[in-house]
Amino acid sequence: MTPLEKTPLEDIFEIIDQTNAQDPRMTAPQGTAAVPTELLRGFRLSLVCEEFAPTADDLVKIAARAQTLESWQFEEADGTPPQENVAVIEGRKREHSAKRISQIMAANGYDEADCAIVRDLVLGKSEDETGRAQLLEDLNGLVFIQFHAVDLLKLYPAEQLAPILTDCLSGMSDEALYHAIDQMNDPVLIKTLQSIRQDISVEKKSIVYLD
């Protein structure tokens, strides 16, 4: 491969990004211009993956980037969710994103086995002998902590924050929670995350990517 040629992963990322750039919903991170919401989410998941588990294989990286691919199609024109059961809507989003990324991968040279792995990861049905599903869970938790937890401090007092975060982060591995604490600057969040780690980490398996 010459220096100008892209890797298969880069090709897939480009297609995912071009697709998610069509999201009509916009999010404006603090101090920056607004960008399509799902495009931003994909970027953030890839960012925390490179920070936390840079040796993760391409299949996890694809699943993370495409986890909510075209999910905006399940919103109403005004950006609000349809008036249906939330779990039903979330299930449809997962099924659609899983199907679309599987189609994209197949059209770009990935075999059925790899497509099935990514499809199951996005659907949340993956067997976790490899640690892939746990890592994807960790990446979602890390994105939540890094980009959204501080906003919760503006809405809730510290004593109410712990149960909210515990509910959101209960699926994370101990390594991921430690990483989140190590990267955090806010003293209230650090204390809260330390408490959560003590409460839930004993029940979680370590992930294999960090060996």
Automatic annotation (TrEMBL):
InterPro entries: DUF4202
Top-level taxon: Bacteria
A Pfam family hit: DUF4202
Protein name: Uncharacterized protein
Species in which this protein is naturally found: Cohaesibacter marisflavi
